[in-house]
Amino acid sequence: MTVRFPEANYFIAGSRLRPGMDGGYTVSSLRRAMQFQDHAGVNPVLLTFDFWPDYAQVKRDFINIGLMTQHTVIRNLFQDARDTPQFLHSALVKLAEEITPPRGERVETTDVDFYGRPWRTIVADAATGRTLHTDFLTHDGRPLLRIPYVTGRPDWHRAPISIMVFGDDGEPIGTIDGFGSLYRLWLEHVLDTSPGGRCNMVVCESRQVGEMLVDVSRDDLRIIHTVHSTHTAAPYRWDSPLDTLWASWFEVMHRFDAVVWLTQRQREDVERRFGLHDETFAVVPHALDQVQMPSERRDPDLAVMIGRLATLKRVDHALRAFRLVLNANPSARLDIYGDGPDETRLRALVEELGMRGSVRFLGHRANAADCLARAAVLVFASTYEGQGLVLVEALAHGCPVVSYDVNYGPSDIVSNGENGLLVSNGDIAGLGAALSSVLGNKETIAALSAGALMTAEGWTAEHSMASMANVFERVLHAPPRR
Predict the structure, then answer these.
(1) What is the pLDDT of residue 288?
(2) In the chain, which end has fewer C-beta atoms inside a 10 angstrom radius, N or C?
């Protein structure tokens, strides 16, 4: 299937891209970029807004794990500022005639890049150890930008700070008013240095970046914002309090040219909450790269989990449920892929439950999804998700899913009794019973596996890219919303 995107410049904007960081957000963003290339013939420019000097090395690392190609193009705010600092000057606020000299002793720590060249100096108060600011450096080690250290607020990107800009002689020449102004300056520079005569389609994958860019108003710009996670706080129902980090995003949601949700359920929950039906909303789920052939190597006693060992994933629930499985099926085994802050606690729980010989911790592996070709079932016990990329990967490998029914993803993907089983949120006994009904039962596994592969046919990249093409066509022919 060939998908045709409208003629335009395409960008995918995120906060940062680093191997092994930010979990499914990084993987899904890069997969989307590769699907643009593979299924629509479009090579989007990846825009990263972090202060990091080594994106050439980052690209090499991602190529090695199959998430970028030699054709991938990355532009980074900091690296552009080092190469062409002139774009910073158009929005400088004039400095006061005198700069108040710093008081007290300072401790400076300088970091070097992949090639051993200084790229930033972190300045701290010698008496307290408190970080004061970071000087980001030019290629030859002169100060370029001084950014105050923001602490004590999760919405650090909205902090009312002044970012000092230095001239060629290393002396300060003015300030920029906060991260938002800096982000918008750079986006304007990127658009001005891209092929002209076309609309610029910016697919924004990061909430914080989207909030900052929404004030860029140009006739040749459309901003399509994707949503990767749930927007509510505990207990994560449709009417639960908004996550505090999402509240400011919802204040500007109506100004994006389109908002792309991963699941129909989340779109409906947002429309229900705010009493609206927004025609700019679309649903484009994480997609499969390809559907695998049915496996003849599936182990009827093997269950797997894939994800960070963090509280959000509720691996402890899965372990307690698996203890119930072992009571009925001593041959059952659980392999857990991933690392994270809860690993020590979870290993101790395995010992406490007497499951040392039945549970393995296999760490983070780039190819962890390959295990889904031989597993009897994927266990999914998250507290909440945006969709759950691993659920789609399980379908692609014909691996049945046993999952808590949480927001968002499981009920959009798992059809109870057809390709897996859904369990009431937090019901450990129910999770154990569902796993027991699958593990060791070859007929049940075969039926659910066939259902998984059938479901996967509707979750291919071709389908997702066709949906994205519809979004782009619609916004291209509508006036910008800012």
Answers:
(1) 82
(2) N
